[in-house]
Amino acid sequence: MDYNFSKKISGIRPSAIREILKLSSDPSVIPFSAGNPSSDSFPFEDLKRYSEEILSNTPTLALQYGVTEGYLPLRNVFKDRCKEIYGAFGENDELIVTTGAQQVFDLLTKTLCDEGDTVISEGPAFVGALTSFKSNGANVVQVDVKEDGMDIDELTKAIETSNNPRFIYCIPNFQNPTGLTTSAAKRREILEVAKKYDLMVLEDNAYADLRFSGEEVPSIKSFDTDGRVVYAGSMSKLLSPGLRVGFASGPSDVIAKMTVAKQVSDVHTAMFNQMICHMFFTKTDLTEHISKIRKIYREKAKLMLDILDKESGGTFRYTRPEGGLFIWCNLTNNSDAMDFTKEVIKEKVAIVPGNAFYADDSVVRNSFRLNFSSPTEEQITVGTEILCRTAKSYSKS
Ligand SMILES: Cc1ncc(COP(=O)(O)O)c(C=O)c1O
Predict the structure, then answer these.
(1) Which residues have any ligand 1 atom within 6 Å of their CB?
(2) Residue 140: which residues within 8 A CB-CB, separation 6 or more?
(3) pLDDT tens digits, residue range 255-306?
(4) Are 303 and 313 in the same domain?
(5) Are 241 and 335 found together in one domain?
(6) Same domain for 207 and 318
(7) Which of 127, 204, 243, 297 to probe ligand 1 with, by most ligand atoms within 8 A of CB?
(8) Which ligand 1 atom lies nearest to the CA of residue 245?
(9) Which residues pair with 139 in a beta bridge?
(10) What is the mean pLDDT of residues 54-67?
């Protein structure tokens, strides 16, 4: 039968990059390509206890339909954390629990963009967000990320030359994929530009709580005085990505429309999972848990960076993240990182070529991303040495 798929889904094609990444599911390959948190960070015993308690004490609540806005006690915890920690809840704001931060991209694009409208994003940026914008019919225009965040001249130019721009997407903390953090000054500038052109900002703080060095920087949302910023949060790195719990806080009118969009999409986020998250916040020693996760990532990042410092021999430049899960590299001889990725895979190490983080993945790029959270320490040691050795012989060829 000829299925005649919609233009929307036909526009999302499996890319050559995904074909390469399939190879990294081979268990003998060292996974520097993953985006997963370390499974050592999951509080298995706590979660087992909370699940049993929920099913023993409040089974109907956990298993029945819930409201679209989310489980009220969890919403209140998120609101409190937004007020007290993230600077992400203002006077006229509301908050909705979502099925991961991923759903925030979908709901906000549906809420703000008509077919052909533009989302201005950092470039490179989290591919899940880019695909979500595109699959909702938005046009994505990317702006270079510098050491301290988006290039403001480029941002202005992109806004002025694109079709009906609607919002600016940024990941100011330990950006995926670059690991870079946007400076406080840049955060203010981004908001000023948004104001000047009357755009919204989607601030994605999926790596909140994962700072392992340096000083906290105020959120963009904390500078927002006129209801311009929607802030996306996630439980994926703090607790577990498999629970699929995140949230959006933002102007109540926008959150109300996102709630309608969510109702159509999945009615509500799984109640059982929301209740587990709520118990985690009320019963787990959060200070201890967060410092344990930060220690895991601090040590893994240091191990990888120390080997890169010793062994990379100037064949590529790399970022030094202050948190998160990733290091971003640029081959210094400007060669094609896609070809380099294929060479590295032959040596049983998987990395992600930089193209994967651009809406147009056909452009030749010299960048690639390394993940340090998923591999074991032994895999980091062996894999980083292999990577550096391969880069040296690749740069001579
Ligand atoms: C920057 C960024 N935002 C959002 C997400 C998705 O988060 P969630 O698992 O909550 O959907 C990820 C996942 O890796 C990410 O890297």
Answers:
(1) 35, 100-102, 126, 128, 171, 176, 204, 206, 234, 236, 241, 246
(2) 118, 119, 121, 130, 133, 134, 359
(3) 999 999 999 999 999 999 999 999 999 999 999 999 999 999 999 999 999 9
(4) yes
(5) no
(6) no
(7) 204
(8) 10
(9) 118
(10) 97
